[in-house]
Design goal:
The protein is α/β, with parallel strands linked by helices. Helix content is 46%, strand content 18%. It has a single domain, classed as Rossmann fold (3-Layer(aba) Sandwich), CATH 3.40.50. Helix 1 crosses helix 6. It is globular and about 50 Å long.
């Protein structure tokens, strides 16, 4: 088999860095993308190529794409997570920023990198299990990831004729620099390495949808089928308890 060429956005930390490490170990040609030039420099010697750009800047993305010929895997992993702490005094600027970073940026990424994906290749969207159920303070993050879900599922239909698969990933809680800032309990927390291993296994099987750890995500899916008044009371009660303990 020829060596895979894999492009990963957000490759300098968290799940993206763990994916980078595992694909490099497997002998893939990994194109590591990130906006932090210093962090990219740290992994440049092991990367096939590095691309320094901000995913919210289409001009930078277009410039990076000019230097890339063909891809087997396009992994859209980069994103941000911040919370709406006071819903009554809604932070519209924060909301717009998260939507721009996690959702709107995908338009330019797909515009410039999707044409590089070869027939038989895959596009992977790293979303979140937060889209299974709504959570307090997650208006911005959850909405951005829900939009990503629809985009991935719709794009899958239109790429069939081009022989390109789409994989949507719903990780549970994963230890990353983003989640390290969380001040609430994160059940069934996985390491970035564990998450990357599960994602790569699913990609290799060309799975359309991945969700893990299943002891968390299946429980959330069951909750989603319950009467809304029941799971809402459970979630808000837990949220209020967490606030009181701070």
């Amino acid at each position: 088999m020829s060596t895979q060429t894999v492009l990963i956005t957000g490759a300098t930390s968290g799940i993206g860095l763990a994916l980078f490490e595992q694909y490099v170990t497997q002998g893939a040609n990994v194109i590591a993308c990130g906006r932090n030039e210093d962090k990219l420099a740290d992994i440049a010697s092991r990367a096939f190529k590095t691309c320094n750009f901000d995913i919210t800047q289409p001009v930078q993305i277009a410039s990076a794409a000019e230097e890339i010929e063909a891809l087997d895997l396009l992994i859209l992993n980069a994103g941000d997570c911040r919370y709406i702490d006071d819903a009554k005094n809604f932070d519209g600027e924060l909301f717009a920023n998260i939507i721009d970073t996690n959702l709107s940026s995908l338009g330019a990424l797909l515009q410039y990198f999707l044409p590089k994906v070869k027939k038989g290749g895959q596009v992977v969207f790293v979303s979140s299990s937060a889209t299974i159920l709504p959570f307090p303070r997650s208006e911005a993050y959850g909405a951005s990831k829900a939009g990503m879900d629809y985009l991935a599922n719709s794009l899958r239909l239109d790429l069939v004729e081009h022989g390109i698969d789409v994989t949507l990933v719903h990780p549970g809680f994963v230890s990353t620099p983003l989640t390290d800032k969380n001040n609430f309990t994160m059940p069934f927390l996985l390491t970035s390495e564990q998450a990357a291993t599960r994602i790569i296994t699913g990609i290799n099987k060309h799975q359309k949808y991945l969700h893990f750890p299943k002891r968390l995500t299946l429980m959330m899916k069951i909750f989603a089928f319950l009467p809304s008044s029941l799971w809402q009371s459970l979630i808000t009660r837990k949220h209020n308890t967490n606030k009181e303990s701070l």
